[in-house]
Amino acid sequence: MNDPILPMPHSAGRRPEPGLHLVATPIGSARDITLRALDTLAGADVLAAEDTRTLRHLMEIHGIPVNGRLMIPYHDHNGEAARPRILGVLAEGKSVAYASEAGTPLIADPGLKLARVAMDAGYKVIAAPGASAVLTALTVAGLPTDRFFFAGFAPSTATARRSWLSELSAVRATVVIYESPKRTARTLSDLAEIFGASRQAAVCRELTKRFEETRRGTLAELAAHYAQGDPRGEVVLVIDRSDEVVVEAADVEAALRAALGGGARVKEAAAEIALKFGLAKRDVYQLALTLQEDEPPSEA
């Protein structure tokens, strides 16, 4: 948010109604703030933010003074302590504006518990919608948008990531994943292997920022490109939906029997076959246990 812009007039005298206001903020360009968001930030009694420094800077860009108002940091590490403070403000009949570091609150953001406790306590929760990396990526990826699945951040460890991706591989919707630029190449390689090398996808980088880039192609092509070097900036991966695949129960059973007969342990066999057919590991594991129980005892 470093592009120079002139402050826009806002309704500083319009006090938001009492309650928790979830304010979407720009994911890159400061120009992407909405007029309603500016009004809410200008008039709220108390300001809460995942990063108060980022929010303060955004308000300075748009000419909104803090005017001595209380600013409460609210993030993953202080939620237990911060939520009672915010609930206390709401109990006084005041308005609280909560902003993520960037984008829409509650989307891969620590604000979920805050919103839930406010709702459970009977306070009004109001959304001031705006920028979202998920929707922005879907807009420029060139893939179907009538049905999509936001999967959040991919696990950082290789084993957990591959297991997680195997569960997503058969989703009948366009899949959206947030990823670190340092792990993008590895995740694309895993995606090409698990989802299929020919599956169409897009790597959306630095959305709405100065060096925004969207690279489209098959997973194999994208994996090969980013194997040459990590991208810079924030990354959103968008992967086309799977083709409908009919998995025959007999095929799964035969593959399990072969794996178990080859000496694999039940858990290992189930994980291998679940990955191969794009099935839930727990379901294949239960089938493997049943097959093992049905096996006749070997003769001495």
From TrEMBL:
Signal peptide: none annotated. It comes from the Bacteria. Gene3D superfamilies: Cobalt-precorrin-4 Transmethylase, Domain 1, Methyltransferase, Cobalt-precorrin-4 Transmethylase, Domain 2. Residues 248-292 form the RsmI HTH domain. Keywords: Cytoplasm, Methyltransferase, rRNA processing, S-adenosyl-L-methionine, Transferase. It is found in: Cytoplasm. Transmembrane segments: none annotated. One of its GO terms (cellular component) is cytoplasm. InterPro entries: 4pyrrol_Mease, 4pyrrol_Methylase_sf, 4pyrrole_Mease_sub1, 4pyrrole_Mease_sub2, rRNA_ssu_MeTfrase_I, RsmI_HTH. Its EC number is 2.1.1.198. HAMAP family: 16SrRNA_methyltr_I. Belongs to the methyltransferase superfamily. RsmI family. Catalyzes the 2'-O-methylation of the ribose of cytidine 1402 (C1402) in 16S rRNA. This is Ribosomal RNA small subunit methyltransferase I. It comes from Falsigemmobacter intermedius.
